[in-house]
Input
Amino acid sequence: MVQIKYMLLISRQGKIRLMRWFDAFTATEKNKICRELSTTVLARKLKMCNIVEYQDHKVVYRRYASLYFVCGISPEASNELLTLEIIHRYVEAMDSYFDNVCELDIIFNFTKAYDILNEVLICDGSMTETSKTSILKTVASMDALETSDNLDQVLS
Amino acid sequence: MGSLRTFIKDVRAAKTLAEERAIVTKESARIRTKLKDDHLASDKKRKNIHKLLYLHILGEKTHFAQVECINLIASDDFRNKRLGYLAAMILLDEHQEILTLLTNMLNNDLHNANRYVVSMALSTLGSLTSPELARDLYPDVENILARSSDDFLVKKALQCAAKLVGRDAALLEIFYPYVGTILRSSQLGTHGGLLGVAKLCQAAVLCRSEYEYENYPEILHSIVDQIPEIFSILQDINSTSFSPEYDVGGTCDPFLQVELLYTLRLLFEKAPQETLQYKNKLSDILTQIATNSDSSKNSAQSVLYECVRTIFALQLDQSLIVLGVNVLAKFLSGKDNNTKYVALNTLLQVVPQEPNAVQKHRKFISRCLFDPDISIRIRAVDLSFAIFNETNMKELVNELISFLKLSGEQDRDLIINIVDQLINKFDLYALDNDLWAIEKMVEIIKIVGQYVSFEKVSDVMVMINNSQDLEQKMKLIQEIIELSLGKRQESLDGENLGWRLLSVWCMGEYGDVLLQKGMFLDSELTTFLSLLNGIYSSNTKLISYILTAALKLSSKIQNPSCVEDLRKLIDGHTKDTNILLQSKSVQYSVILSQPVGQRQDILGAMPLFEKSFRNGNSNHSEKPKIKVENQNVLLDLLEGTSDATVKNGSQALLDIFGSSSQEGAIPTTNTNSSSSISLSLPQDAAETYQSNEMQVFFRTVSVAPAEAQLELYIQGHAQIDNLQILAAVSKTQKLTMGHLSSASIAAGQVCRQDMKVSGSGKLKLRVKLVYDGASGTVTEQFDHKFDQSL
Output
């Protein structure tokens, strides 16, 4: 099982590109976590393992090109190895959606990145859909609804 | 006002941080003004909220727009609704009062004809589940589960239901029947649906202590009855041929497999009686998964890992545990650092149960000592000590030493940890005067003496002092001093203070033997001491050792010019600004002016030390704790003319204080022990902390939802007086300290402290103990986490 407390997308320059909090944190805690994790994770060498013990929980991260995907997970029950797979599934979904995703896609279309994430993780950060096809189909259908609403407005 | 795209571009184009801040602050102010305008067109409003989400990612404050987000949800336009829900999920959390405004909208949208609107409402409810929202909206979620045939909605409704049950356990009664119906439904039992069912089962098991109605056993039963269904799903996933939709690196849906395994683990763990009949079948399935999976890919390993954790957690058959250990050993032998990390972590937990199975894979564990990743090295060291025993220790110690040779500054904490643990282990196996152990410790000081604390170095001195094999010992000491004097091939790190300390001590203690055998010239030794005295003048500890060594050496050498050098060295500190060194040096010069014969008596060889008893195999209850470096001088000085060179430490002290026999001391202890009310340790008290002086146990008397009664027991290893117990709990809790049965306890006796913790959250305590022990006032502190929560 994996319970993701938060997911942060951090660029190699230490800038936050996306953040989603599944547990309730105060603004101060959020700032602290973002600040500390961007330095901790960025400082880790390539050969080191992708699991860090941080505060009272664990952090699993994975780097894709210039972006680090960083997940805080509950310490006891969560499966660290599976967390890596969840990150990968999310990245795969974005890769298909944006057709070879890059950091700029996420910066300019961050709401889309959130929309995709919302179809993968739900509630307290537990996985709700494992099929990439289903995830993409849902997001595409919702996008289509938006366009049709737009069309209605223009026609009227 | 520009579009979001230009805003993002502007922020990115900013050359300096100050410029970026200026752009962001300006835009933030503009959004704030715009959103205040009630007549703003909804398109504009949406645009502004969109920008606001970007500000949120930049770490800006967004609280001013909460109401606007919620208003956006009320819109009929799908674009507005979608962004509104997204903004609510991202900007709000379950503690905000504003959520009450959401209730009505969610209630409407959960009945919307558009499945995507319903799905967004479910996701938002799942993210922002305040107890009030849970209470108000559960009927709508149930409605979906009961009526909808859309698997997309059902999977989300199930997750949402699990979360609702987590918030309000009473809702379990409403939702539990759906575990069975969904599992049996071919249409709704998709992988997503099954993930939801698994969550609901977990919630049902975990809310046991909060569920107030009497029908919990029935509910549990109905869920346990679904176990065969879960088994067959697991088996199906593992046996089906390739299905591209769910395949991850050759493993079919590891996400679902892990979730189901975890659900089974919880069920078997929390309902051992009810699930007993399925236990064999579970073992079969776990064996199947553990043996059939190909473990080279991370996806397969994540399933194997979950499988092994389940085996260990449920304490299944020994053969299965061994299988699990072997799977983890395979992880260790691979190249991937993540699997190594989890394997070491998990093996550490299973060592106490299955030491031999873990033992077999020592080779892989030792290899991890040399991993480039510090977190893996730390765990490899811990695991090495966990499997440490009499048969493998020689090899293990050699491996640790070769690790130390390669270690550096970045491993400081780890090095200190290794030295501490090794000294404890040698002590535990009563090897502290074994020559092999001494040689190894000396070698370790040679390699990493700069990191080791002086206390630990003096533990090594005690080991050397206590060794009976004089000839071998002298050979070792000769090597030590030769290296220090630069007479050997190998060179020494100049920062290695631990080694300096050791050599200085050896010169003082064994100078006479070394000189008699003609191993060194007396001038070599004195020059060395004077040299160190000059170099390390700021290091009080080392200087006081040098002073003692100089004094001792002065009685052991004949050469008058050397003696004069030593006298100068000692006199040089009579005006030292450090009071300790000054008084020491003044006292020493007094001794130095005594006639030679008397001096030799005073400065004779040290008696045997007994270290404070960690292994508890000593029966001297009155034995004082001897701190070597503080007392050796005292002992030396006061031992007087006694010619006994080999003497029990406690006797020595008794001699000092002038009591001619031991009888005087023993009765005191006896009266002490009979005077206090004797308490015995209850069977169910768990040991939580141990030190030289005492063992501490905790017993949980009761854990009600908001209050826990605890008892803390302290069993003294030696006499403890004026005991004070201070404790603290986390902020969400309140602690009431009750009665302490006795502030003084004799060795072996027990005292009890009552405590009451009220509030909520994980039950954990920080305890501080202050007492007068054999070596003066001692403060000890430890933390303890209980399994229970309030």
User: Anything to note?
Assistant: The CA atoms of residues 23 and 122 of chain A lie 11 Å apart. Chain A has a mean pLDDT of 90. Residues 4-145 of chain A form a domain with the Beta-Lactamase fold (CATH 3.30.450.60).
